[in-house]
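Example record

The entry below shows one chain as it appears in the dataset: sequence first, then structure tokens.
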Amino acid sequence: MENLGDKVGECIMVNPTFWNGKKVFVTGHTGFKGSWLCLWLSSMGAEVTGYSLEPSTTPSLFDLCDIKELLKSNVISDIRDSQRLNAAMQEAQPEIVIHMAAQPLVRESYKNPVETYEVNVMGTINLLEAVRNCASVVSVVNVTTDKCYDNKEWHWGYRENEPLGGYDPYSSSKACSELVTSSYRNSFLNNQVGDRKIAVASARAGNVIGGGDWAADRLVPDSIRSILNDQKIVIRNPSSIRPWQHVLEPLSGYLMLAEKLFQEGEQYASAWNFGPSDADARPVEWIVQEICRKWDGASYEVDNSAHPHEAHYLKLDCSKAASDLNWHPRWNLGQAIDKIIEFTVAYQKGESLINVCMRQIQDYNGLNKE
């Protein structure tokens, strides 16, 4: 795989030179976002240790791109196993930790609330305890969600200082994860840990979409699955508005934030929003209409039966990331859907998906000059 560190350009957002040779510990690396992150980090020359359960879907981006072969170490274990987690981190001796292991689905949290809290709250505690005990760690990014806010269904974006909350167990558990992160930062990690301080931030992203997501009960994966099976797309809550963004958008924010934490420390150790422009906070039905417009023969229908509560309107204010990190969305929603279609066509044809992903990463980060 080509090393992007050899292709630094003027318009990059994520700096490949910084990441070349960095030791990075990624939890949840077998998931959709984790797989994309590992591809990006590996392409820049980072030494990545992954800690996660086996991929939760078949197929999975992790397996299709053979990401295991790109890693320094592939640890298959549960974030709730504190002893195994500590041992893995001690062995890896990472400089940077990006925590993405989670139970990430709202509807699943209604079915399994206890597991959701165990993974999302105690998992965060286990991770931060492992960080405290690992002398090599300099910076940590805990990835939570935009759903951690106490959603009032406002028509303006939530800022990082807005109250936390959560109607459903998933959203609530992620708000708890945010509180845990803040408490550990204030109580332990911003103070001396041995002879050093550890800079810890949390990152709150919108509804992430992209090629290679096969999770259940997510709009775009469900739509793609229906298309590939020659079935009509079925949607619920067609008027619900979400801050949709391609997976590379928040990942670029996490990477830029981790670099700042590493270089400048506690000045950046706080909560950060990474969401799309206001124009891309779109209703569910709009997304499906666009997918159907771009995929010949696709169609949809609305399921009007009763469903568990989900927020109707949610938007993020990302002014802080724009002003302090110089982070901005690069791809609009139409472009994001185009990239998903490109990936899906390649999957259908049996093409090399790692090549597709790397081409999209280069395009996004301004490294593809062709």
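Notes for this example: Residues 5-10 have pLDDT under 50 and may be disordered. The first strand starts at residue 23 and ends at 27.
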